[in-house]
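In response to reviewer comment 3 from the previous cycle, which asked for concrete evidence that the modeling workflow produces usable outputs, we include below a single protein chain processed end to end. The sequence was submitted unchanged, and the resulting C-alpha cells are shown without manual editing.
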Amino acid sequence: MRAARAAAGIALGALTALATPALLATAALTRCARLPLRLAALEQRRVSALLGGPEPVPEGVEARRAAAYLWCRVPVGLAGGGALFLLAAGAWTAASGLARWLAGHDADGMGPSWPVAGYLLTAGLLLLFLDLAGLAAVADLERRLAHRFLGPDELALMRRRIDELAASRSGIVEAVDAERRRIERDLHDGLQQRLIVVAMLLGRGRRKNSEELYRQAQAEAEQALEELRQVAWRAYPASLDQLGLREALAVDAERSPIPVHISGDLARRPAPAVETAAYFAVREALTNAAKHAGATRIEVAIGQDTSLVRVSVHDDGRGGADPTGPGLSGLQRRIAALDGRLRVDSPPGGPTHVVAELPCA
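The workflow returned the following C-alpha cells.
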C-alpha cells in the first residue's frame, strides 16, 4: 500500500513537472505572484500525502522560494517519470523472459529458447532492481526539496523557539504564582484558624486551670500538625526524592478514596524536574477523578523509552474535564516549560484519559 502510494505520488509529480515550466512562464508574463505559491502548496500537499514529506508550515513561504522550488523539482519529476517508464519496461522484459522459459521453444517452435529466456529474465530483473532503487531516490529527493525550499528556515525556527520559550517562561511564572496563592489560602483558611483556636483554648485553660481545655488544645494542635503535613505534601512530597516516582504514586494511591491500579515503572530515574512534573500530572488527574468525575476505578501507567517519560491516567468517570481549568492549565504550562506535552481526552459521559510526555533529560 505504501509503495503504491509512493508510485502514484511520483507519477503525479512527473505530470506536474511537464506542466510547471509553462505555468511559471505564464506567471512571469502576467506578473502573477500568487500562482507559484499555489503551485508550491499543491506540490507540498502531494509530497506530504503520498511521499511522507513535511507538513505545510502555517506561516507559508515567499514567492521567490516557491518559484525556486518549482524549477528545481522539474528535473526530479521528469526523472521520476523516466524511472516509472523503465520500471514498466523492466517488468515487461522479465515477463517475456519468464514466458519464454516456461514455453521452452523459440517463437518459430524450432528449438529451445532457454538461453534467450534467461538473458531476458536476468535483464528484466536487473532493470527492475535498478528502477526500484531509482524510484526510492526520487521520492527521497522530493522530500528533501520540499523541506529545503518550503519548510521553515533557520530564522523562522529560531523565532518560533523564542516565542515558545517566552510563552513557557510566562506560564511558569503564572503557575508558580497560582501555587503560592493556593498555599497561602490553605495556610490562612486552615492552619491559621486552628492555631488561633489552640491559642484561645490555652488561654482559657490557663485562666481556669482546666484539664479539659488543655486536652482540647492538644487535639487541635495535633489537627494543625496534620494539616501542616498535608500542605507540605501538596507543595512537594518528600517521598518522591526518597522513593522515586512509582513508590510516591503508590503512597498517593493508598490515600485515594477510589481504587487505583499502577502499572509499569521507569527504567532509570530522569532529571528531578521531569520526575516532579510527571508526579504532579498524575496527582492532578487523581484529584480530579476523585472530586469531580465520579469514577469507580483509576488506571495509572508509567513508561519510559530512550527519549521520553510517559505517564497516563485513565478513569471510568463521567468525563467532561476542562483542560483550560486552573489545575490542568497550570500543569500544562509546567510541562510545556520542559518541552513536554499534556493531552486530555475527556468527552462528556467519559471516560477520561490524561497523558503526559516529557523528555528524559
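The two ends are 38 Å apart (CA to CA). We consider this sufficient to address the reviewer's concern, and the full set will be provided in the supplementary archive.
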